[in-house]
């Protein structure tokens, strides 16, 4: 790196917030699929630091990549070339929780789990939850409008963001830190930054509306004979307001993961040709017996947790799928939205008779979001197949009126399909917005747009 640039950053943020060695963890994504060439990572500690960094980069046409927990699954958080990584980890102050409004005010670099730990004494929690909770940061969640495990009950993250502080590429610190639940004063500017994957500015603070921790919870794990049964169960429970999560797993992956656990802890033997559902209900005075009876209409094979440890174990069977696939090789991951009753059909269209490389589908069937994971033994092989699979898969998704990204976002992975998804007119509008905020295109280049 040019010594003049280094000196400028030293003046702005100090030597302790500049990293130029051992950058592997910043240049590589969680899946080992995307690798960048950054030579410089900055770790700002205040919004003023972020402001000075962006102003300087903008004036000198230096490209930057905002990075939070780096758990994103579409290559959005790692550089492509030698962009400067702005790691938000050190902006990790939680300011306060206001018990009257149930709003937490925090810097954006706090780990999601730490926010929940902080809220615990107030008997509140964050309104979204995902398997990466121990590593992902608030700002990363907001920038991806993360989905996760409880969307079926709580809806999307963007509905809970009451206020934001955002630093624009020109260094301006935009104060959108509203704390009013109701604020009808024109266009809601902060919404533009939610889900924009670091392409418009850097989120530095947020006000988030929290939800009370439910008094009781119960996890049901069901073994079903067909995917149609999964949908029948979904239809049955859909109107039950206590359903907090409705997750689907194929037998073929649960069976493969059996050896990760001691046999006597498993709820079932797991069968390649069976279908498994995890339902969590939560609230006050849960009617567990009534719910069980309703489920028995579809199957006798039901496990219900007896204590917290068992609940965590049942959840682990679901949550470990993403990581276990990564251990098998290089994984192509898809997170599409389609009508839930089309999940099995879609996979059968892509892989008739389920032949081809090892692949599974699973996910948030309760909100119409299926994950398809396909494993390859090398990155070369993966890249060779990628386009072929995507043309077919995304074409079908589009024909079903679905979305090519239900929750992980676009990043570098799906950028070339944005026109297919959005259409020319919408895409033009999005480019105009990008140009308005980031005329020099320094923010997260070649991602999303
Ligand atoms: P990063 O990966 O660091 O960044 C994500 C994007 O946001 C990048 O484009 C980055 O440039 C941008 N960005 C980061 N911070 C900022 C900021 N402060 N300002 C502006 N832009 C910023 N996702 C789901 O939606 N649902 C799931 O259920 C889910 N489960 C997961 C399970 C596992 C095991 C893993 C590894 C990932 C999972 N993910 C899931 C994906 C990922 O965790 C989410 O996308 C998460 O929100 C990313 O947060 P992060 O802090 O890691 O952000
Ligand atoms: C999940 O729901 C995550 O487990 C990850 O969104 C999905 O790895 C995946 O494809
Ligand atoms: Zn998911």
From TrEMBL:
Keyword Flavoprotein among record annotations: yes
GO molecular function: FAD binding; oxidoreductase activity
Record keyword Repeat present: no
Secretion signal span: none
Domain FAD-binding PCMH-type: 34-213
Cofactor needs: FAD
GO CC term (a single one): mitochondrion
Keywords noted in UniProt: FAD, Flavoprotein, Oxidoreductase
Family label: Belongs to the FAD-binding oxidoreductase/transferase type 4 family.
Name of the protein: FAD-binding PCMH-type domain-containing protein
Biological source species: Paramecium sonneborni
